[in-house]
Amino acid sequence: MVLVKAKRDDLLNPLAAVSGIIERRHTLPILSNVLLERGAGTLSFLATDIEIQISARSSVEPSGEARAVTVGARKLVDILRALPEGAEVTLQQQEKRLQLKAGKSRFALQTLPAEDFPRLARPAGEVTRFSLPQKALRRLLGLVQYAMAQQDIRYYLNGLLMVVEERELKLVATDGHRLAYAALALEAQLPRQEVIVPRKTVLELAKLLSDSDEEVRVELSGTQAGFSFGNVELVSKLIDGKFPDYTRVIPGSQKNHLAIDREVLRQALLRAAILSNEKFRGVRWVLTDGSLRIVSSNAEQEEAEETLEVNYAGDALDIGFNVNYLLDVLNNVAGDQVECGFGDSASSALLTFPSEAQFKYVVMPMRI
Fold this sequence. Notes:
The protein is built from seven helices and 22 strands. By secondary structure, the protein is of the alpha+beta class. A hairpin with a 2-residue loop joins β6 and β7. The model has no long low-confidence stretch (mean pLDDT 95).
């Protein structure tokens, strides 16, 4: 029974879009599979890890009755990638196997029943809906996602705070040592909605969004976030928890200010990082009139020092930072200049960029 006949890329592209969330080892074998559903002129691909669900569609030649089957996602991706470009592929169901034919190549893959494939239930209750260009959401995610925690015991930090309020979308990420905030104006007037999107969802979404003006439709409920764009739909459960009050973390006014060329600072930090302590990754910023010295040392008593001439006339400061936290923001936020605000040696620094008016980055000092 023929499931579909199609060009290799018409199968591979949607399959690759959904298979990124599939874990290699699962206690439930069916979660390693992708669900293929044949409809009227479409073939849809659905993958899930119980927390996230991604579906993608491909237009195919219309045929008779609807059919569905699940098959190992990784193996199917690998086979399709190994076939020549432009190859004509036939997928055919035969008892508990899926036969794949292309030219003189033949593959028989084990299947599991489509009716056993788990799906995320649609949320009940109120849903906030809005749209924005894919490239706008992709850029906003890129400004903050690197500051998310990884496997923190404070589970609510292992994700991204998404706040919709009136005509604004705000994204906030923090791991407790640094915080990234970015905002974007929306066209619609919306009620306040605050959700925490899991880290894995954020990374997958950023990977799938294109740098285009095509819209992404966002749906936020009390338990789920949904993103629809192109032929892809991503639905994710939310993290249930209370995110820290980011408005209290971002300093209001600071008396010491430094403006510096972003690339000059980035290169100096890269060099100083070479001899920083491998475990703590600390560098000291020693600020005096017209000068910034960046100093690092390690357990072998090796030292690095970078001296930069800067436009600084504030208090003399000696303040330590994790160099990775500084490099993260300089690597992910474009712009010629970065502006740094300081209180004293024990208070957080605020980094802003003239090129990104709605972006703020707070980094806590460390003892060195």
